[in-house]
Amino acid sequence: MGLLKHALGLTALLISARTQATDWELSLDMRAVSSNGRESFLDNGQGKLRFDEDHQGIRLGRLRAALDQPLGEVLSAHIEASAWDDDDKNPIDLTEAYLEYRPYPRAGFRSRMRLGAFYPPMSLENRAIGWETPYTITPSAISSWIGEEIRTIGIEGQVDWLGTRLGHSFDLQLTAAIFGWNDPAGTMLATHGFALHDRQTTLFGRVGAPQPDPEFAKKELFHEIDDRPGYYVGAQARYLDRAVLNLLHYDNRADPTAQSREIRDFAWLTKFDAAALRIETGNGWTAILQALVGDTYIAPGSFWLEWEFDSRSLLLAKRMGAHMVSARYDEFNVLFRDDPALPGSEDGHAWALAYTFDPGTQWRFALEWLQVDSTVPQRVVQLGETAFASETKVEISARYSLAGSF
Amino acid sequence: MSILPFLRLRCTSAAIAVSLACTLAQADPLSVTALQRDGKPLAGAVVTVEAESPGQAAPHPEHATMDQVDLAFVPDVLVVPVHSTVQFPNSDAISHQVYSFSSARRFQLPLYRGKPYPPVTFDQPGIITLGCNIHDNMLAYIVVTTANWFGRTDSHGKWTMPHLPAGRFRVRLWHPLLNESADIERLVEGGSEGSLEIRLSRNLRPAPLTGRPHSWDY
User: Fold this and answer.
1) With a CB-CB cutoff of 8 Å, which residues 150-179 of chain B face chain A?
2) Is A402 an interface residue toward B (CB < 8 Å)?
């Protein structure tokens, strides 16, 4: 996390020398939950939901604070902090913190650069502030996994061709990034597979509660173990504001033989390709298609262990003014290559139906029904449960937001 | 929104001040109707009428305003005579950063709220595309014209010039969503009452989406 600490230090220094107002946002998202979920992955179980049978009732969805500080004309700093109340390591922690350099477009082109910790430009679903989805409470299995395990801690450059500003119907964007401190990415897929949740792992935190066994991995995702930087490259094409196609290739270039004593985990060599397509119509319909395929490896001793993973989702939403109704189908698979019958493999699918009411004021309300059906052999071995589980959750969200500047 | 009163006023004041063309010449109205390919009216199209021969007074430069309200430029299209100035206030609570890299006028207004900058002068005719470097969905156009008369079509696709003097005139039509292969131009003869119907040969491009909550980051 050295680079991040330096970036934060630099940010603090620049903010202290600020000449322009700081924009702030604050929001409180409270939930009412009814769930029959198995013991959640956040509590080291094999349940797919954030709120399991033991975590029903009134819950904190998210307490979020964000700062946006212009630093001169084309440089700005962004900081996102959240509290989730899920047995986290830190009661409040950062999800993103970065500097953004955004010079003026010239002759139809614009470059952008981000330095710090942030999400790769991948989810077309999580388009709302705070990396949330406006369509449902719970994002797709793919976005849930990105929020759980993936963060760019490094530097990213983008070049946009602003065709729509030149009289064309298309815009194009190319992205490339070099990052570190994401070597454990993949460890949670091998431990509990995909899950469907709105949790974002914090930069200095871990996934859920501590492990009961002190020998087990600490579930901390943002560490550099092998001193090998990773990279991703991506491309995006937009047709006016109606359609977006996003492609990304990610490779954390981890050395799968490397281990960290500090977090008791391996460097997981994780590579994936992701594609997403979002289409919006003039009468309020939205369709989002997402696909992810990849694999992750570790090499303890003389072993070479490989897990393949893939997921797809299709979301359809209809917006009628402040009201929106959404339906989403997800399917997901993890295959432990050595023996598919052994723990580590899984397959499942999920249905989500949601209604949101966003009148454009400080309040937003959402109601979601989510069912996840999954077959996870690990449940038999680790917990003595049946491998198959059908978990259902109904959740109401009431979010109050404030924003201003000082 | 009808712009006819505005145009009548323009013609009258121009006549008094400069040429008397509107009141003295044998002038009759010119009515331009813009239709989409399917025959539906094309509202908001920019119509310019320019004399082919000299003698008609050029319009006076204006002091116009392009506001920013609710993360959108208002109006979406502004038509001004060449040498006009345009003020770019930001009425939103959040900052915007306005730019144009169009060849007719390149400029940028560093991150601001309120009205901190002097107006921008537009000395060359052409279409200037405006953007906000922070909010990529903000898009608007300034049409800077040397035409003697201009306006935008109403909800019926219609724009009427009360007094077109005798002579030969070039009528041009432009709209941000046009998808035509060539510029739309027609020649008309003034001096007698005329109507001109312009029908597009291709469908318009889809209009920008509206009404999405601002909490969506796009």
Assistant:
1) none
2) no
